[in-house]
Each structure stands twice: as C-alpha cells, then as structure tokens.
Amino acid sequence: xxxxxxxxxxxxxxxxxxxxxxxxxxxxxxxxxxxxxxxxxxxxxxxxxxxxxxxxxxxxxxxxxxxxxxxxxxxxxxxxxxxxxxxxxxxxxxxxxxxxxxxxxxxxxxxxxxxxxxxxxxxxxxxxxxxxxxxxxxxxxxxxxxxxxxx
Length: 151
Description:
By secondary structure, the protein is mostly helical. The protein has helices spanning 54-59, 66-82, 84-102, 111-145, and strands at residues 3-4, 11-12, 30-31, 34-35. It has two domains: 1-60, no CATH class; 66-145. It has a two-stranded antiparallel ribbon. The N and C termini lie far apart (76 Å).
C-alpha cells in the first residue's frame, strides 16, 4: 500500500518516511492496527503548544541528516589526516545515505553532503593508496640502489 503526500499528492513507496517529490514528512503507515516506522511521542506542552509527533519534528527540521554530514566529515578528515581509515567508511556511509534519500527514507537536503562525502572519499582513497604504492616503490628503489645493503 503506497503513501500519498498530503502536501503535493505524490505517490510514494510504503516504507518511505519523506516524500520523494517535495521532501515533506509522510504519515506512518498502519498495518493491522499497529504503527510501523516512526512511533508517535508527544512532546510536553510548552507555552500552550499542542503535543507534536516527535519523530516528524526531529526529521523535518530542515538541513542534512546526520549520516550525510558524517559522510562529508569522514571524507574531509580522511583526505587531510586519517587516510583510508576514514575515507572508506565515508564512501559506504555516503552511498547508503544517497540510497536512503532516493528511497524517500531521508530528507533530500542531505543529498549534496552525501554525494560530496562519497566522491571525496573515493578521490582521497585513490590518492592515499597511490601515495602508499609510490612510497613503497621508492623504498624498493633506494634499497636496490645501495650495493652494500645499507652498511
């Protein structure tokens, strides 16, 4: 059973949390009288406001998701100091977040961060592996150029 966006009338996948057209939060689906996905938690009543769906409030605050931001931070850190120990996770986190955005499970605001994290992670990984290979080649050449074995 697909979900229809209340904002733009776009038909979305049943497991989607956000609309694939306008990125509006979608209502949770009911299966057998029980809610799937986000559970509703009421926030306390501050200043006369009515309780809101906590999961929708947290996810619809605008901006990129934590996974998209993490992918970008891991890629930048790996590019400058942490080598492949953070660039390879940046590639995987960016890839997973791009797929979640395409499926409507994450807000579209994080797509740019996820893409940048993914591509910077790939570029940094290739550069670091190439640099390690070049360093190893230079070590072998320097060892081969010394006829006395370093003594």
